[in-house]
Write a structure and sequence with these properties.
The longest helix has 14 residues. Helices cover 32% and strands 26% of the residues. The chain starts with a strand and ends in a 5-residue tail after the last strand. By secondary structure, it is an alpha/beta fold. The model has no long low-confidence stretch (mean pLDDT 90). A hairpin with a 2-residue loop joins β4 and β5. 38% of the residues are buried. α4 runs parallel beside α6.
Length: 239
């Protein structure tokens, strides 16, 4: 297997939500190559966020055949859910933009991004002011999250992800609270990451993903009597 992330034999399950059937996803093989841009689309609740959590080494799979991260075989760590060891590798290799949360409330936007950069171990990266300017939040760097609007917090989370300079950048609905202008600005910043950065972005805006050169994958649901099965497949006619 080659790629920044590569795995085989994935089985993911999610506890049933109130009134809903149990959810399951099976993926035979997946490889995320350097420089790839993958957009995840699909209805709400289909499993896009769960799949991103797995790629971010947060969600523990029910089963996994092989898993490599940046050329290192971490299958045993993923199977056993070794949180500390996985967290160290996540800090070095993965930037994750969550849809909600992710910012420490007692730190300013600048300090949140600076902490993520420090944990990544990288120093030779563009200044935070430069990235914040791209996102349109340069004037809010010294504010705490509670003093930002929902859209500003969302862009602050994107800043935090970009600040790591990670080879792999994951983003869960990074434009959900943004208007059209700021959504485009955010995607411009995401796709301005250093050459070779692999992007996986979940979004309900397939047209926006397509405009920025993403290959679209749809998470589709199939209903069965006792469960719902999620399938990951190329979105025909959209990619």
């Amino acid at each position: 297997m080659e790629g920044l992330i590569a795995f085989e034999g994935l089985s993911l399950r999610r506890p049933p939500r109130q009134g809903a059937k149990p959810w399951r996803m099976e993926v035979e093989a997946f490889t995320l190559h350097p420089g790839a841009r993958i957009g995840l689309i699909g209805e709400s609740g289909s499993g896009k966020s769960t799949f991103l959590d797995f790629l971010a080494l947060i969600a523990r799979p029910e089963g996994i055949g092989k898993f490599s991260l940046a050329g290192e075989d971490v299958t045993r760590l993923v199977r056993n859910g070794k949180g500390g060891a996985l967290a160290r590798r996540r800090s070095r290799n993965i930037g994750y933009v969550l849809q909600d949360g992710g910012l420490l409330p007692y730190l300013t936007v600048r300090a949140n991004a600076g902490l993520a950069r420090s944990l990544s171990g990288r120093r030779d990266l563009p200044g935070l002011d430069q990235i914040a300017g791209q996102l349109g939040i340069a004037g809010h760097l010294d504010k705490r999250p509670a003093h930002l609007s929902g859209g500003q917090r969302q862009r602050a989370q994107v800043l935090r992800g970009l600040a790591t300079g990670a080879q792999i950048l994951l983003a869960d609905e990074p434009t959900a609270a943004l208007d059209n202008e700021n959504a485009h600005r955010t995607f411009q910043a995401l796709t301005s990451a250093p050459p070779g950065t692999a992007l996986v972005v979940a979004s309900h805006w397939p047209e926006l993903l397509r405009d920025f050169g993403f290959f679209l994958c749809r998470v589709s649901l199939r209903e069965y009597p006792g469960e719902v099965v999620a399938e990951l497949q190329a979105a025909e006619g959209l990619a």
